[in-house]
Amino acid sequence: MEPPADPRARRLFGGSARALGDLAASPFRADRDRIVASPFFARLNGVTQVVSPGGSGLLVHNRLTHSLKVAQVARAIAERLTADGRHRDLLEKLGGCDPDVVEAAALAHDLGHPPFGHLGERVLDRLARQRLGLTDGFEGNAQSYRIVTSTEIRGAATTGLDLTAAVRAALLKYPWTRLDHPDPHPRLLDPPPRGATPPPDDPGSGSSKFGAYRTEIGDLRQAREPFVGRIPDWQQTPEASIMDTADDIAYAIHDVEDFYRVGVLQQGAVAAELMAWQRESGHLRAITDAALAAAARRPGSAIERLRRQLHRKDAWIADDEAFAAAVEHVREELVEGLLAMPFDGSIEAEQYVARFSARWTTRFVDAITVVEQPAVRSGHVLLAPAQWHEVQVLKFVHHRFVLARPDLALHQRGQARLLGTLVEALLEWLLDPEEESRLPRRLHDLVELAEAELHPRTPDRIGKARGRAIVDFVAQLTDGQAVAMLDALSGRSGALWTDAFVL
C-alpha cells in the first residue's frame, strides 16, 4: 500500500494503515478500528458517567455508552457539514474535515477518564500534584492522549495505538499543556480560551484543562504540524471542534434522560425554578450579586446566576433574548413534555424518552455552523446562538437538580476517600524493597515507561516515575476494580485468586 497522500494521515511510528486485516481500509477507519479494539475502550463500560449503574438500580449511561453517542452525533455533524458546499470549502481551508476522523476522535475522547467520573479526575489531580510531586498533575483529556500515544501497548513494535496525525489532533480538545506549551501559553490571553483559566483555588498551577502532559509534547507538535499556518496554535482543529460540540450535545441530552429514568428529576422542582425566573426576571436582574446570593434557595435565583455567569464568561454569544427563549423552550419540552409523564418502565415511556432525545439531537445537529474567525472561547464549529443557550439551560437543569444533591455528595465523598486510600496503599507497596518482585506486573511496566520518558537529570526522577505510574495504574481501573483492589489491600476481601483480575 502506498503511503497516504494526506499529511494528516501520517503516523507517529510509521505503522501501516491496516486494521483488522482490511488492506483497503482508509487510515482513519483503521484508527477507529484500533480504538474500538482497545481494552481501554472496553473498560469504559465500567466507568461512571455521573452515577454508578449499580447505585441507581436502573440502566444509566456509562463512559462507553456516552462515547458511542458522542461518536454518533459527531459523525452526523461532520457528514452534514461536508455535504454542504458553503461549509466544505472553509473546512478545507482550515485543515480538513473527515467524518472518519471525527468519529474516531469521539470514540477515544474519554479513554483516560478514571474511576468515578469527573470526581475521580479532580481527586487524582490533587493527589498527583500534592502527594506525588507531579507538576502536570492529572487531567482526563491529557490521560486519553497519553493512552493512545504511550501507555496502551498495541504490539511489540509500537507504543500507543499508532493513530494518524489527524485523529490525534482531533483528540486535542485543549491543544496545550498545563504550563508551558505553546509559548505564550493560552492562559495568558485576554480572555483565555475555554478551559485555559487556572483553577481559582490554585492560580499558580496552570490551566484547569489541557490536552497533553509534557511527556507528550513532541507527539502533540507532530499531530498539529499539518495545521500550522491555518489555525492558531492554541485553537482546536475543525474536527476537534466537532467532537467537542458533539460531547456537549450528548451530555446535555442524555444526562437529563438518565435522571428522568431514575426519578431524580421531578416536574415540580424544575417547573418552580424555570417559571419563577420567567415571572420575576425583571426583579431578579435588577438585584445585586450579593442579594442574589443571599436568596440562593429562592426559586428562580439559580438560573439568574446562570444568566449572569454566561455574560461574564461568554459575552461573545450571551444574549438575554436568546436566554429567555431557551428557558421557555426547555420549559415546554422538558417540564410540560418529558417530566409530565413519570417514567414507569413501560414501552410507551421508553418511546417517549426516545422521541425526546431524537428531537433535541436533530435540533442541535441542524443548528451547527462553521466560522472562519471564531471568538477565543469558541471553536470554528459551533451551535447557533439559540441552540447554544438551550444547551446551557439543559446542562443547568442537570447541575441544579442532580449534581447539587446531598445524597450524591455523600457517595462522592466516599469515592474520593477510596481513591486517596488506594493511591497511598499503592505508594507504600511500591516503596517496600522486599516487595519489588511481587508488584503487579502492569505497575512495574508503567514505572519503567515513566522513568524512560524523564530526562536523566530530572530531580527525583525515580520518585516522579513512581508517581506517574501510580496515577496511570489507578486511572486505568473501572469503578468496580478500584473498589475490589482497595478491599484486597485493606484485608477485607477473602477472594484470593479472583482478586487478581485487577492486577
UniProtKB/TrEMBL annotation:
<dbReference type="InterPro" id="IPR006261">
    <property type="entry name" value="dGTPase"/>
</dbReference>
<dbReference type="GO" id="GO:0008832">
    <property type="term" value="F:dGTPase activity"/>
</dbReference>
<dbReference type="InterPro" id="IPR006674">
    <property type="entry name" value="HD_domain"/>
</dbReference>
<keyword id="KW-0378">Hydrolase</keyword>
<protein>
    <submittedName>
        <fullName>dGTPase</fullName>
    </submittedName>
</protein>
<feature type="domain" description="HD">
    <location>
        <begin position="63"/>
        <end position="252"/>
    </location>
</feature>
<dbReference type="Pfam" id="PF13286">
    <property type="entry name" value="HD_assoc"/>
</dbReference>
<dbReference type="GO" id="GO:0006203">
    <property type="term" value="P:dGTP catabolic process"/>
</dbReference>
<dbReference type="InterPro" id="IPR050135">
    <property type="entry name" value="dGTPase-like"/>
</dbReference>
<feature type="region of interest" description="Disordered">
    <location>
        <begin position="181"/>
        <end position="211"/>
    </location>
</feature>
<feature type="compositionally biased region" description="Pro residues">
    <location>
        <begin position="189"/>
        <end position="202"/>
    </location>
</feature>
<dbReference type="Pfam" id="PF01966">
    <property type="entry name" value="HD"/>
</dbReference>
<dbReference type="InterPro" id="IPR003607">
    <property type="entry name" value="HD/PDEase_dom"/>
</dbReference>
<dbReference type="InterPro" id="IPR026875">
    <property type="entry name" value="PHydrolase_assoc_dom"/>
</dbReference>
